[in-house]
Each structure stands twice: as structure tokens, then as C-alpha cells.
Amino acid sequence: MPRNGKANGKTNGKGSGHWIGQRFKRKEDPRLIQGISHYADDLRLPGMLHCAFVRSPHAHAVIRSLDTASARSVPGVVAVILAQDLEGVGNVPCAGVLPDLKTPAHPPLARERVRYVGEPVAAVVAEDMYAARDAAELVQVEYDPLPAVVDMEKALAKDADLVHQEFKTNVAYVHPLKNGDIKGAFKRANRIVKERLVNQRLAPVSMEPRGVVAQYLPGERTLTVWSSTQIPHLLKTQISLMLGLPETSVRVVTPEVGGGFGSKLNVYGEEAVVPWLASKLGRPVKWIETRRENMQATIHGRDQIAYLELALKRDGTILGLRARIHADLGAYYQLLTPVIPTLTALLITGCYKIPAVDIEITGVLTNKMATDAYRGAGRPEATYVIERMVDLAARELKMDPVEIRRKNFPKPTEFPYNTSTGVIYDSANYQMSLKRALDLAGYTKLRARQKAGWKQGKYYGIGLSTYVEICGMGPSSAMPAGGWESATVRVEPTGKVTVLTGASPHGQGQETTFAQLVADRFGLRPEDVAVIHGDTAAVPYGIGTFGSRATAVGGTAVYYATEKIKSKMSAIAAHLMGIKPDGLVFGNGKIATKDKKKSVGFGEVVSAAYMARTLPPGMEPGLEATHFFEPSNFTYPFGAHVCSVEVDPETGETKIEKYVAVDDCGNVINPLLVDGQIHGGIVQGLAQALYEEVIYNEDGQLVTGSLMDYALPKAVHQPQFVLDRTVTPSPVNPMGVKGVGEAGTIGSCPAVVNAVCDALSPLGIKHIDMPLKPEKVWRAIQKAQTPPAAGKRSRAQSRARRTA
Amino acid sequence: MKKNIAININGVEHRAQVEPRLLLVHFLREVAGFTGTHIGCETSLCGACTVLLDGRAVKSCTVLAVQADGRSVTTIEGLAQGNRLHAIQEGFWEEHGLQCGYCTPGMIMCAHDLLERSATPTEQEIRQALDGNLCRCTGYQHIVNSVQAAARKLGKRKATRAVAAD
To answer: Hey, how many other C-beta atoms are within 10 angstroms of the C-beta on A770?
Structure first.
């Protein structure tokens, strides 16, 4: 049975015991639904100044001169600074390391040249925001425009203009990944399927733009930076390095963070400039990004062009995959820019046994904003191309897309499964999730209706996507900046529990899920547990929230820290009861023997730990434990999505009629929150398939510079999603959890495109690149042959009908 | 240049001398200190700044503060009565209608406008009504559920009040 979405009100408040797996209402919500939480823009400090940036209107230009006199004359303006004022301030960091990587210097404010529209060239500080923005418009910059490198494929030409002269090429790196007998695979193949597939550039568009507030206290020599970030600790380290301050003087606090989707898994130039201004001016400074700035100068995602060849046997068995992928990196690197496309290589075989691969990824520099991690970060690109290729192969071989998938899945007994790309899938049962999804969708009936529809000129399509993804990022050996996570659990003297987590949730709800987890282990109520995150002065060093890692890595750290305390409490309890500490059970506010004959109150043991008079000899007082969890592997959630669409041949519009998602993220702590993650994820993937696209014109001008031009999905566009799940616990962590933040996005995008291409198959249309906007689909239909099944109506007739 | 205005916000009058170009959302946030109303785009496309102006939903980034002179504004902070949440707030909490929470105040105010006009909207009517409010986290399904739950709650409360009045 598909689940309904209702929270179980009964689980809130009463009883104790099993909180894991409950649809528990979020602890975060009361402050959010009353508007009494604090995002960066809501912070007010005495004497606070406001900052605005002056940004390049050109994609590529030499800065001839900068005149700040008129800007300085605006009443209320306190300072106007240029690149040369930032002496000693370090460049924007990139953690990505690859062999022979060409890394351009990335100053926080542009020096002689600008290389993308939106690149900051000056910063204005004023008493209020209106004055700062007025003055920013008065900073006069003379530019000598240069030819812009916009098209990543043209950028590869020998005589192409260069983004960075010093490299003498626009190729930032070439990353190969080869394994197996690829030549033999293609020699033995009965069929080779080839296609060029584009993963267009997207904008993450968290509803809260970025924001930074900084305050320097000269007496204490402390710099506090409130930033809307996913990685407070890494940001603290990088701010100290960029500004040359001892790391012990820098504190980063994340206020409420209004979404990130990877875009705030970063260190931006503004995060150096604003703190620098605060320390130089001796007053707090606030900068809040406008939406226009957000479109121009917050990282973008995706932007890959893939040339693929799939070698197959006649029966659908896949023998090998060749992929030449061009990845548009933009003009400079942000934190992870160059490594994101390499994740595509790791996941490109999807959930299929492909014994031979030959992958080559070319990172290309262009005059655009940097690409970086956006929900899925390299993995949606992989899933899209393999899922499209498998569908194209099925069509070529006249097989059902279900059959070709089943033919190439590893068996459940083959896990852990070593892929030819070098990763080890932890656990899965792809057959099970696919079957469940097909049953829920009524696949056979949908196919029957489709056939009948074609005869009546109705274009119904059914799209599948069976995906696996790489989550729980990740073992440190495979991560650019450490892949572990920290947690401290402290039972306070009153028996309430404080959890400090290095994860930095920004909408995912870990204040709730971690409270459920800890309450469950201690036999308390989630109300008794407070989860603190996002303050480097309070929380032990941590990594942050991204890559669907908060629960799988951060939650596991919480789990182990809790176990350490339980073990100590067991020893104290046993000492108080005069028995051995083995096998004591926590529950109902007590610590008891298994047979429940003897017990001691949870609070009594806590008191003993703090009063320190009745502790076992030699035991340290207090009840606090910290754990740094290093995962042994990634986790690999998987699932099957089935999407049924109707395409209107008159308008090219796609209507999603039914959407079924069966996801397996291992064990689930809070099903309500998992559903929410899946819903939101599906819509982001679906939006890539149908609407969203960052467009730069041939001059490198950003055409989609506002929400007027960049099509975000709205409520009216979405169907009701039918969700279900299978549960295949991960062996990588003791809770068996996998992660769910990106699953929906990874699974949904190819399902939708496969459905549309399936709908149009009677017209001989094989493939249309995303986004499948009505105009593009309509043009493809016009170009295609007259539909054989709907042949009664010729193209000319259709046109006549439209103009009538 | 500056103009004296008085705006009643959540039942309390706020007087200030403002520039004519000051947006209502900046008046609410910067002058009156009601930061629950968020700014997501400044071009009236995202709906995060939705408030009630004389009871009807408006995007406060496209209303000038001077246009609200002498009128009443309800922001998200004005919905709950003491510790008692408004039915729409309860709906969003129970149905997990929010994740990062940034769009939520605008969503709730927009839903308020809808439920004042239509006590039992259909799913499609709810989706239409929320057309001017963007959410990047939830995929909207739980938001729709939240508004439906709120409609049921309001219906019940009305019925209870009617019985009490009898």
C-alpha cells in the first residue's frame, strides 16, 4: 500500500521507547511557522553597516579604470573598496585536487580582468541598505570588452579565445577512467547505441539567497561571522586562512539557513570581504544577496555534454560503455568545482553490470559562473545518461525498458557489488524496488492504454528510471576535505540531553531525527533532547551537511557518542545496584536488568555522575562523550521511478499524469521527513527535465537573470506523487541508514525524459535534449514524420487548426 | 521628501517618517522589526514576502510603505494568539508543509487569503491559489496537504463556535 502523508500526532508527547521509524512532527517548526526564527537578514547588531557589491556587466573584459568618487559622495556611505584595498586577503579556495589540474587564481574582487557576468569588482558600505545600493550604482567602471568563451565545445578548438591566457588552453583537466576489455566489448557487440546527451546548466535557487553578517571585537580579537552556509567549520578555517587571522579568533555561526541544495556548500569571496570590512571599519557589516546576484554569482550546477556509446548483445546484455564528457566549469573554481564531474564517472554504470568502461571527462573553462555541487552533484548527470542510454538501447533492440533493466541488474546476492568504475555498492535489491514501482503504477495497463491511445492520436508515454546513487559522503580517502563527522552527546544534570552535531542541517530536520535517535537509545522522549548545530564555538569541529550525509555519517556519530554514554551509565547503574553491568536495558526513564527485577532511575544515575560521590572507583565524573565517525564506504540508496505522461502534439506540452517513486534509503528514522525529501527531490529533477535552464547568450550575457526568466516549478505544475519504499539496510553503519536528500532528484529526471521520448516514439523521435519545454517538443514533433498512427491529421492540417 | 505614515501592523499602529520609495517589506522588517516576512526575489515572483493588507494577500516587495499608510497589515507574527497557533500554522506543522521554512510565512499568509474566500478548496484550487508562491524544498505536496488540513480544522472550529452560539 502506498503511504499517506500524515504525521502521527499520537507519537508526539506521550510515552517513551521506540522513536526510530515514527512520523514525528518536527521540533524545528514552531519557530519557523510563527516567523520568529532568525535567518541572516533578520540579524541586527548595534551600529551595523550594510554592504553592496558592484559586479561586472561583461562576461569578459579588461578593467580600464574605476572611479569611486560619486559613490563616496552619497550620504551615508562609509567606504568603497576595490581589489587593491584587500591587500593580504587570500584567494577564494578550491579543495579539488586532480592530476595536472589548471587552477586559476580567484581573487575575491576582480583585479585587472573580469571573467563572468556578476563577478564582483568593488564593495560599498553604507549606513543603510538603500544608500549602499544607490552608491554601488554610482561606482564608475570602464571596461574594454573581450571576446567571451561561452560554448564549452567551441572553447576546445585550437584557435579559441582564452578565459585565462596563462594556461594557453581552456582545458582545465582531462580525467580518464578505464576498466575491463573495452575493445573486446565493442568487437563482440551485436549492437552499438550512440547518442549525444546534454545535462543543461541549472541554478540551485535556494529560497533564501546567501547572506553574511560579520562583527569584529578588537578587545577580544574575535571575529564572528554569521553566514548562510552548509559548512560552518570548513568556512571558519577558510576565513582564518583568507584573512590571516588565527583560527582560534574566528567563530562562524549559521543562523537559520533557508535551503542550500549544495550552493552553500562553499566558500565565497563575499565571505572574506564582509568580515574583512567589519574588522577594518570596526563596525558590524551585513551583506544580503539579491536574487539577481544569486542567479549571477552563486554557483550553478550540471552543465555537461556527453557522447556515449553502449555495446550490447542482441539479448540486451550490456557489454561496455564509452563516454566522452565535456564539463563546463565556468571561469573560476569554487570549493569543489573541478571534482564534481568526476563523480559522474564513478556512477555512470548505474545499477547495471557493465564489465568494461572507457570514460574521459574534460573540464572546460568558460566565461560563466562556476559550476559546483547542486543537489546530486555529478550523480544526476550519470544517472540521466545511463538511464537514457538503456532506454535508447531497449528501443533499438525492440525490448521492453523493464526487461533490459532486469537483464542487467546484479542479483541481490551479488552485493557488496564491485562496479567497473571502482566503487562498491553496499547493498541493494533493484528487482524488488522495480517490481513494486511497476505494480503501483499499473504498468501493464499503462502500456495497453498507450497502444490504444496512439491509434487515437493521443501521445501517452511511460518512463522508467532505476537508479542507484552515492551517498553518505563519505570515506575520507575519497573526499577532498575529510569525510567523517562529529557528535557530542551530553546528559545534563537534570537528565535532559544536549546533542552537538558537526552536521549543519538547513531544512532537512536533523534537530528532530537526531532527537528521535537519541531518545530511542536512552529510553527518553524526543522532547528531552536538544540538538545544537551550526556554531563553531559550541560544536566540535565537523564537516557539514551535503551529499546526503547528515544522518548516515553525522547520525552515526551521534549514535556512537550515545553508546559511549550508555556504557558509562550502565557501569554506574550496576555499581549502584551492586551487580555486573552486562546487558542492562534503557527504557521508561530507567536502567534495568533484562528481567526487569532490578532497576535504577535514569535521573539517579545522572545525579551520581555529577555528584561524583557514589561513582565506581576511578571513574571520571560527568556524562559527556564525543565521537568522530569515519565511514568505511559510501552508502548506495536506490530505487525505481515510473512516470506516465501525455504530450499534446498541438502545443508540445507535457502533462504528468501519474508519478510513482519507490525509494530505498535503508532504515528510516522519520518516514514523514523522508517523504518530504523525496517529494522535493522529485520536483527538482522533474524541473530539470521540463523547465529549468540557465541560459547565457553568445556574448556570455546571463539571459536567465531573475525568477521571471528562470522557470522554477510551481504548485500547479506538480502531480500528486505516489510514494513507497523498500528497506535494504546499509551494512556501512550500525543504524543501517543510507541517506535520502538527493534520491528524488537523481531518480526523477530521466524518468520524465524517458516518458516524453516514449510518448513520441510513434513519430520516430528518439531523443530531445532537456529541458523539454513545449516549444522544443513542438518543434521536434513538427520536424518528425507525420505520425503513422495519428495519420488522419497531417502536419498542414494541424497547423491550420492552430491558426484557426 | 520624507513622508509621515502610520501603518497598523498586527493590531498596533507604527508611525514613521519614510522615503516614498521605501518598500512595505522593508518597512515591516527594518522599521517595525517584523522579520518573519522574508524577501526572496524583490520582483514579486516568489511570494516569500506575502502579507495581508486589509485582509487580502499582497506581496509586500511590490507595495510601497506609503501605499499602506492608514491601512492594516497582518504578518506571520500576527497569526497565533499567544501560545495558540492558527489553524494554518498547525496544518503546516502536522503535515510537514515546510523544510527550510523560508517560503513558509508567505505560503501561510497566501493560504489564509484562500481560506477566507473559500472554506473547502479543492486540491486544484489550492495549487492555483499558491501559484505565486515558490517553494524549493517540499515539492508542494505536503503544502497542499497542510492547507487541506487547515481547512478541515477551520471548518470544525466554525462548527464548534456555531454550536456554542446556539
So the answer is: 26
Contacts of B96 in chain A (CB under 8 A): 5, 7, 25-26, 672-673, 675-676
Name the helix (H) or strand (E) containing A639: strand A638-647
Interface residue A277 vs chain B (CB under 8 A): no
CB-CB under 8 Å, B139 with A682 = yes
pLDDT digits (tens, 9 = 90+) for A248-279: 999 999 999 999 999 999 999 999 999 999 99
* Cβ atoms within 10 Å, residue A451: 11
B112 has a chain A CB within 8 A of its CB: no
| Of the candidates A495, A496, A500, the residue with the CA atom closest to the CA atom of residue A510 | A500
Domains and CATH numbers, chain B: 3-78 (3.10.20.30), 87-161 (1.10.150.120)
* Separation of alpha carbons A588 and A590, rounded Å: 5
> ipTM score of the complex?
0.98
pLDDT in tens, A160-209: 999 999 999 999 999 999 999 999 999 999 999 999 999 999 999 999 99
Which of A208, A290, A681 minimises the CB distance to B42? A290
Q: Which of B77, B76, B143, B101 is nearest to A509 (CA)?
A: B101
Tens of pLDDT along A618-672?
A: 999 999 999 999 999 999 999 999 999 999 999 999 999 999 999 999 999 999 9
Q: Which of residues 493-522 of A touch B (CB under 8 A)?
A: 506-509
Q: What domains appear along chain A, each with residue ranges and CATH number?
A: 409-466+636-804 (3.30.365.10), 484-629 (3.30.365.10)
pLDDT at residue A215 above 70?
Answer: yes
A-chain CB neighbours of B144 within 8 Å are 715
CA angle (A549 as vertex; A545, A554 as ends), nearest 5:
80
